[in-house]
Amino acid sequence: MKKVFDRAELEDDIPILEPPEMDKCIVGLQDNRLTYSYMKLLEYFQTTGMTEGESEDWIVYNVIGLNLVNIQYPDV
User: Which of the four, 5, 21, 22, 24, has the lowest number of CB atoms within 10 Å?
Assistant: First the structure.
């Protein structure tokens, strides 16, 4: 899979989620903010041992709640 960006090339003021394994959830850059796929974040957190519900709660509180990145939601 082709990376959307290289961490070393990002401007210093662009927030990025840690750990670096979450980079695979990035789908773009808009308005000087990285855009993360909600579905990829959900999958990532489930690989860490969280249930789907725990992953959803974590994303809402610790990712969306910080308002530092853009989230791309799936089309419904």
Answer: 21
Q: Which long-range contacts (CB under 8 A, 24 or more apart) does 16-24 make?
A: 16/69, 17/63, 17/69
pTM over 0.85: yes
51-69 tens-digit pLDDT: 999 999 999 999 999 999 9
Which domain does 71 fall in, by range?
39-76
The answer as to whether 66 is a domain residue is yes
- Report the C-alpha gap between 4 and 48 in whole angstroms: 23
52 φ, ψ (degrees, to nearest 5): -60, -45
- Domain count of the fold of the chain: 1
Rg (CA), the chain: 12
In a domain, 24, yes or no: no
DSSP annotation of 2 reads -
